[in-house]
UniProtKB/TrEMBL annotation:
<dbReference type="InterPro" id="IPR029024">
    <property type="entry name" value="TerB-like"/>
</dbReference>
<protein>
    <recommendedName>
        <fullName>Co-chaperone DjlA N-terminal domain-containing protein</fullName>
    </recommendedName>
</protein>
Length: 123
């Protein structure tokens, strides 16, 4: 939805993070694969090849509040795409949330918002 607003280096970092989360359980679902393709298309990076960067290096790329909000919202959309919020996904989101400085209320609001969007897209 908002990925086009990211800076070029943020777009590449976001794709690294999204690929990491989508593959975190060792099983890339058709839903996750579809969302990853959508992300790449939205950012004009259809041919991007993942580098497998460390999460700490990826997260340093996002400096503005706006880019952090975009990243979290889009990643939650990816996580909820297969209908399952797995423990490993939750652990990674917690790392991201803490690194970005989101408190529990902000994070809860993001989750609620993404769940509502998902409900709208199903109907």
């Amino acid at each position: 939805m908002f990925l086009a607003e990211l800076q070029p280096e943020e777009k590449r970092a976001f794709l690294e993070l999204a690929a990491m989360i989508a593959n975190i359980d060792g099983n890339l679902s058709i839903f996750e694969s579809s969302i990853l393709s959508k992300f790449q298309k939205e950012m004009g990076l259809k041919d991007y090849k993942h580098e497998g960067l460390a999460i700490e290096d990826i997260l340093k790329t996002f400096k503005t509040e706006r880019s952090k909000n975009i990243v979290l919202a889009e990643l939650l959309q990816l996580i909820y795409s297969d209908g399952v919020f797995q423990e490993k996904e939750n652990e990674t989101i917690q790392i991201i949330k803490e690194h970005f400085g989101f408190d529990a209320n902000e994070f809860g609001s993001f989750k609620d918002w993404i769940e509502k969007i998902k409900e709208l897209s199903v109907t």
